[in-house]
Task: structure prediction
Amino acid sequence: MLTKAFDRYLSIALIAVGGFFIFEGQRINESSFGSAIGPGVLPSALGVILILLCIRNIYETFRKKYPEQEKEKVHYKRFLIMLVSTILYALLLEPIGYVISTFLFLLVGFQVMQKGKFVNSIIIAAAVPAVVYYMYVVVMKGTLPSFPVWLSM
Result:
C-alpha cells in the first residue's frame, strides 16, 4: 500500500540518487569514447530530471489525499520479468547495439505493464530509441553502441 510517508521517503532517496548521477557524470573523463559533447552530459541530465520529478512528487504528497486502500497484490512475476530484462538489456547493449537492445527492452516492459496493444507497443518501442539515437549521435555528435556488425552486411 502506498502512503504519503513512503512517497516522501522514496522521493528523498531518489533525489540523492539524482545527485549522485550529477556528481559522477561530472567526473567522467571528457575524452572517453571520443564524443563531441562529453559522456557526462547524459547522466547529469538524467540526474536533474530525476531530482525535478522527485521534487514534484513531494509537492504532490502535500496536495493529494491518500484514501485508505486494501492491500494490493504484489506482482512478483512482473518484477522478475523486468529484473531479468533489465539485466539482459545491460548485457546486450554493446553486442547488439543501443537501438535494438532498447527496442527489445521497451517492448518487453510495455507488455509486462499492460498486455495487449501490441502494435502500439512496437511503434513506440521502435520510435523512442530511433529518435534518441538520432538526436544524440547525429545531432549532438555523441556516441552510443551502434548496430551489430553482422546486421550492416
About this structure: The two ends are 52 Å apart (CA to CA). DSSP finds five helices and no strands in the chain. The helical segments are 4-27, 41-63, 76-96, 98-113, 118-139. Residues 4 and 62 are 8 Å apart (CA to CA).
